[in-house]
């Protein structure tokens, strides 16, 4: 590693002191993703470089495991293959501003597939299988093996993964879709799933289309939204279901986080404390904590039982673009404009 490489720091949230410094990125860290077993972290920067960090049990520290290069512009999103399809985690998908999606074998540091049918950049994905001609802005892989994709064409499309056939198109948004979430995201990320057994829990998804409103869907069954969620005063950046599926959290440029009922879409409360736009949010595995990253350079941990701020985590030198919990909820990872990836220990 050269002398100009920028540090990645691991932090203890109780003492707020660094535990470890990792060198690697030379530009803004735009997205991060924990592997399903919690032993690896993928981080990507504005230079189009992905770094894979691996936990070393002998030293009790993370080390640089692999460096993946291939994207010609910055990377917008990372996603590990769902756990019930592959364990341990080996395949990683990345979406870039170069309008391509790459599927990587991280062990061999090799690109397995380059999906380059997009005519504009891809901003988020959850292991993409289907190439669209519109800019795909977000995507989710459901527990019943369907893929939901949101696009600039203002629609959500439901695809079969075994043959790529389009099952249905969900319409209603007036603008292009920029974020999409499903209520089984967490289950697919950390646990087994049996597609042969029908789940008693309805599989819901929620979407936002460059606006101040959200649509709640049951995409495997209905073509029309079952609820329209309004309340934000400025554009919504991200939306996430809690792992138990009971609550929806949305982050907005209006500096607030709003909570909604996960089944009906009914508004519950607003969480205020950030003094800048809220870019990303992430839930702990027990649905009791929510972490948020903001343009105000802070992370905030919210207590969901009290619906109040639990802990303020300053430390970044600039805007925080990406946050994520480890699968066991022991650590939070954050990255931002200061080119630093930080790990916060619970």
TrEMBL record:
It is found in: Nucleus, Nucleolus. CDD domains: WD40. WD repeats lie at residues 22-63, 68-114, 136-169, 229-261, 271-312, 313-346. GO terms for biological process: Notch signaling pathway; ribosomal large subunit assembly. This is Uncharacterized protein. One of its GO terms (cellular component) is nucleolus. The keyword Glycosyltransferase does not apply. Transmembrane segments: none annotated. Keywords: Nucleus, Repeat, WD repeat. Signal peptide: none annotated. It comes from Meloidogyne javanica (Root-knot nematode worm).
């Amino acid at each position: 590693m050269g002398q100009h490489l920028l540090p990645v720091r691991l932090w203890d949230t109780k003492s707020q002191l660094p535990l470890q410094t990792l060198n690697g990125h030379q530009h803004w860290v735009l997205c991060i993703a924990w592997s399903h077993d919690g032993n690896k972290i993928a981080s990507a920067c504005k230079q189009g470089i992905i770094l894979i960090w691996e936990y070393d049990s002998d030293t009790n520290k993370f080390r640089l495991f692999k460096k993946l290069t291939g994207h010609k512009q910055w990377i917008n999103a990372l996603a590990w293959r769902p756990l019930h399809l592959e364990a341990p985690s080996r395949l990683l998908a990345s979406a870039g501003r170069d309008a391509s999606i790459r599927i990587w074998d991280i062990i061999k540091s090799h690109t397995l597939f380059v999906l380059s049918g997009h005519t504009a950049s891809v901003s988020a994905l959850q292991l993409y299988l289907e190439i669209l001609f519109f800019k795909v802005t977000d995507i989710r892989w459901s527990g019943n093996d369907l893929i939901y994709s949101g696009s600039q064409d203002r629609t959500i499309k439901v695809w079969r993964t075994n043959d790529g056939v389009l099952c249905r198109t969900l319409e209603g948004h007036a603008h292009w879709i920029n974020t999409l979430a499903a209520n089984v995201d967490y289950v697919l990320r950390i646990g087994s799933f049996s597609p042969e057994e029908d789940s008693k829990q309805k599989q819901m998804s929620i979407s936002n289309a460059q606006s101040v409103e959200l649509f709640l869907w049951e995409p495997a069954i209905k073509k029309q939204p079952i609820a329209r969620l309004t309340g934000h005063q400025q554009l919504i950046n991200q939306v996430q279901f809690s792992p138990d599926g009971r609550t929806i959290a949305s982050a907005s440029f209006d500096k607030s986080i709003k909570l909604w009922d996960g089944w009906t879409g009914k508004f519950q409360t607003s969480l205020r404390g950030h003094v800048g736009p809220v870019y990303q949010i992430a839930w702990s595995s027990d649905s009791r904590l929510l972490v948020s990253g903001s343009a105000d350079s802070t992370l905030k941990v919210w207590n969901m039982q009290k619906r109040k701020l639990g802990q303020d985590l300053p430390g970044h030198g600039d805007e925080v673009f990406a946050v994520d919990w480890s699968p066991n909820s022991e650590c939070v990872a954050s990255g931002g404009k200061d080119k630093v990836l930080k790990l916060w220990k619970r």
